[in-house]
Specification:
single chain, about 260 residues, alpha/beta, TIM Barrel, eight-stranded parallel beta sheet, 8 strands
Length: about 260
């Protein structure tokens, strides 16, 4: 049963010592493809050099909220930078650039939302210009993210990465054309609200993701997360929903391939 890891920071230094071995183990566990998000402008070149070295790897062009403070250009120049990089990858490497992101808002960091918002809005604008979905980071900022998405209406939809929240919030995102990223959070019994939500919303709107090397699973706290553990997310989601693991894997793979056109 083929799995798609819809969000994995496989280019990060945490995987530098054994990236090939981790990928081999991931393949053995059924992972056939992964999407590696962008986080900063200086990272894009390295990211796509990596993506283009391996079948089954895809990339996205984005500026993560955590890297907004390091941005060396004005927010008004962000959309142009994103569009130019996407167009470069299309010319040089065909369809390996499949989204804009990781972008969004984070209410837990010391960069103010006032600083983050114009950078997020610029990337949504860029996504519409290049007709790509967006990978959205929304932490303690759902109201602001929803307001901005309602105003911008990304034409190709996207995914709310590492979704954690109520069913009402989930349904609002779905109505806006977004899917929800399901990761290691659901392996924690204390995440009752998120587990209940993801057990109830239609499976057609869910994607599986590792967010490796982050978001370690219950029982693996403090360890490096890995795409090879993605089957555990599928298994947990199947148990929560009362369906087979095959059903979860088959539908979420279909969802990921449809959203990212891979």
């Amino acid at each position: 049963m083929p799995l798609v890891d819809s969000h994995c920071h496989f280019d990060f230094d945490a995987f530098a010592p054994d990236r090939a071995d981790v990928w081999a183990r991931s393949i053995a566990e059924g992972v056939e493809a992964m999407v590696i998000p962008g986080v900063s402008i200086p990272q894009w070149r390295h990211l796509f050099a990596l993506v283009n070295s391996q079948p089954g790897w895809y990339g996205a062009v984005g500026i993560h909220p955590w890297w907004v403070k390091e941005l060396a250009i004005a927010p008004t120049q962000v959309a142009r930078a994103v569009v130019e990089r996407v167009e470069h990858e299309r010319r040089e490497n065909g369809g390996r650039c499949v989204a804009v992101g990781e972008c969004g808002l984070d209410g837990q960091i010391d960069t103010s939302l006032a600083q983050q918002i114009p950078v997020f809005e610029a990337q949504l604008d860029a996504a519409n210009r290049v007709s790509l979905p967006v990978i959205v980071h929304a932490v303690r900022a759902h109201n602001e993210v929803i307001r901005i998405l309602k105003n911008t209406r990304p034409q190709c939809g996207g995914v709310i990465h590492a979704f954690a929240g109520s069913r009402q919030i989930a349904e609002t995102y779905i109505e806006l054309g977004f899917r929800l990223g399901v990761g290691g959070t659901i392996t924690y019994e204390r995440a009752a609200k998120t587990r209940d939500t993801l057990a109830a919303v239609p499976l057609e709107h869910l994607l599986l993701e590792s967010d490796a090397p982050d978001m370690p699973h219950a029982g693996r706290q403090g360890e490096r997360n890995s795409p090879e553990y993605l089957p555990a997310v599928a298994k947990t989601l199947a148990e929560l929903r009362g369906v087979s693991m095959e059903t979860v894997i088959t539908q979420t793979e279909k969802n990921a391939r449809a959203l990212f056109t891979i």
